[in-house]
Amino acid sequence: MSSHYETLGVAKDATPQEIKSAYRKLARKLHPDVNPSEGAAEQFKLVTRAYEVLSDEKKRANFDATGDLNGNGQQGFGGGGQNFGGFGDIFEQFFGGGQAQGPASRTQAGRDALITITIDLEDAVKGTVYPLEMETAVTCRVCEGSCCRPGTSPVTCETCRGAGQIQRPVRSFLGQMMTVETCPACRGFGTTIPDPCNECNGEGRVREHVSKSLNIPAGVDSGTRIQLRGQGEAGPGGGPNGNLFVEIDVRRHKVFERAQTDLHAKMTIPMTGAALGCELKLETFDGEQQITVESGAQDGDTITLPGLGVPRLRGGKRGDIVVHLQVETPTKLDAAQRDLLEQLAALRGEEMTAGRVEQSGGMFSRLRDKLNQR
To answer: 206: Cβ–Cβ under 8 A, 6 or more apart, which residues?
Structure first.
């Protein structure tokens, strides 16, 4: 493969002006607008690539040192020789961005929309129907998205004759070339609207307050997103609606705390209830539940109510309610109460000491054994 100097037909010590002059001469000869022959476009790319590298001081130095045709300091093309790097930038700079692409469509898809709603934990457990109120873009009912006053229609642009783009000559160091640009009269649509709809000002859509009903399935949690296809903003020119995404936020509950599909609750019981056993009542999302606390319950014990938690979002059995017992020790005793507790302590043989030392196998013996092993 020939070097960039050979491509431009200049010596390795050519000056920037000589490189520029050589490029102008070859580009004028090979440009597709001037030379439609087979292979001219590919040759023009190679010439432009050579000029891009040799006209940049740093890239030229890298090319001279490494032979990297991209001028990036690496060997070879790095991509099979198919990547021409900044060729598009030079082409656009000199020739206005290339060939015509045809008129653009006024009909475009609407944007997606995202809103956040807050629901109660009970609604997340059971599911609910939530009324949505929102401001959004809807298709204009007067023109039905045509953008035109009823009874009229778009007409072909007289400036570009429906092409959406125009060509005009420009002068550059390569000589006179043709550049392609968006038609300023029709903004690239190829048609104009002499009589736009008065309701939507020719956009084909208007903003309105919209009410919708959202079915929230049981099992949703904070951060869950529900997608409503085709219920986002209407597109310009009668284009299709985008999608609507509703993000769920679940309020904190005064009794229950959620952990995936389980619900946790704390219940305080008196010391006597823990010792003797007692019956408790808990209001759940499935009605009032009776809870039996066995005698001898300890602080931190749990009681499980199976199947009364949160259902899985995509089906399956429900989680549980886990009740955490918190034993309340009395802090203010009158004389009679204190006397009764002292009698109970005496009957149980409990001395009024700060505690008791663990026997073998306890914490202190384990610590002693570990120290003796050193």
So the answer is: 137, 138, 140, 199, 200
Strand, coil or helix: 296: coil
**Contact in structure between 234 and 165 (CB atoms under 8 Å):** no
Provide the β-strand partners of residue 118. 249
- Whole-angstrom Cα distance, residue 187 to residue 159? 11
The token duo for 358 is 């663990």
Residues 6+ apart with CB under 8 A from 192: 154, 155, 157, 185, 186
Domain boundaries, the chain: 4-95, 113-250, 257-329
User: Pairing between strand 175-182 and 165-172?
Assistant: antiparallel
Helices 40-54, 87-95: axis angle to 10 degrees equals 100
- The predicted-structure confidence for 22-80, as pLDDT tens digits, reads as follows 888 887 787 766 677 777 778 888 888 888 888 888 888 888 888 777 766 544 433 33
pLDDT digits (tens, 9 = 90+) for 132-182: 999 999 999 999 999 999 999 999 998 888 888 887 776 655 556 667 888
Q: Give the CA distances from residue 252 to residues 99, 118, 354, in Å, rounded to whole numbers and listed in that order.
A: 60, 10, 40
CB atoms within 10 A of CB 54: 27
Q: Does 3.40.50.150 match the CATH number of domain 257-329?
A: no
Among candidate residues 281, 247, 229, the one with its CA nearest the CA of residue 110:
229
234: Cβ contacts below 8 Å, ≥ 6 apart = 110, 136, 137, 138, 139, 145, 205, 240, 241
Q: What is the pLDDT of residue 80?
A: 36
Domain 113-250: top CATH class: mainly beta
